[in-house]
Amino acid sequence: MRFPWRPLALCCSAPGRRASSSSVPEGIQSFVPASSTIDAHALEQLQAFLSRATRLFVVTGAGLSTESGIPDYRSEGVGLYARTDRRPMQYAEYIRSAKSRQRYWARNYMGWPQFSSHQPNSAHLALQQWEEQGKVHWLVTQNVDALHSKAGHQGLTELHGCAHRVLCLGCGAVSPREDLQKRFKALNPSWGAQAGGVAPDGDVFIEDEQVLHFRVPSCKDCGGILKPEVTFFGDTVNRRTVQFVHERLAESDAVLVAGSSLQVYSGYRFLLAAAEQKIPVAILNIGSTRADHLAEFRVSARCGEVLSVIQPH
Ligand SMILES: [Zn+2]
Q1: What's the 180 CA to ligand 1 centre distance in angstroms?
Q2: Per the domain annotation, does 286 fall within a domain?
Q3: Which positions in this protein are listed as binding Zn(2+) (predicted)?
Q4: What's the pTM?
């Protein structure tokens, strides 16, 4: 049976949750891909799947944060790739070109107040509750927005790093991104531009002319190049981190993918490993994913609305 998703969400909303489960604020909706119906059978399947799991391994991606107002790259029609010709910063270009770094930071600086203010939504909060209840063994996210840690999630690997931290490429020191914002402000007191939109990595759109006047600080200790502690495209994920996540996966008895199309191999590899170890997989994502053939089933719906109504026992 198929029926419209909204009435279902309204009739099943769990009272007493910390966040509103069914309402997506105006303006934020524009980043969430269309999903008008949900397969009720698939929802029941997911409920049963999660109830059976005792050590759940969760993989999350950009689709989990769209309901917090952060656009993703790949969603049909609303993702950044569909709406603009902008592409994310490449690692090699960042390292090679001071101009590219200047452009990157100028945009990042403008986007930071908005990007850093995003709050976890009902999906992040539901997963955190499941962790508290002992259902979730480990969570690995491809997101760099810190929303899982803002929700209080403990057993967490940020596979692609976190935009709230800054790494010195010279001495390896890690510092809060917020501190760098203050240094930017001090170095560029009269610099200003109108930001036109924020990408998943905190990037925004600014005229080239304005970028030329933006001053970028280097590491206070060694003068080295600063970089967000985020895996850029073309960069590789730390091997020890990958090994660590593989170990957590091997301790798990079920895998839930939430809000990721798994197009990037760094996340997809854990689904391959799960299949090899015969760990059952369920996928919750609007649109198809690279791992559909590895999953027992897939639910195509908004993460926040589904996760906040499911009660895994
Ligand atoms: Zn340094």
Answers
A1: 13
A2: no
A3: 168, 171, 219, 222
A4: 0.83
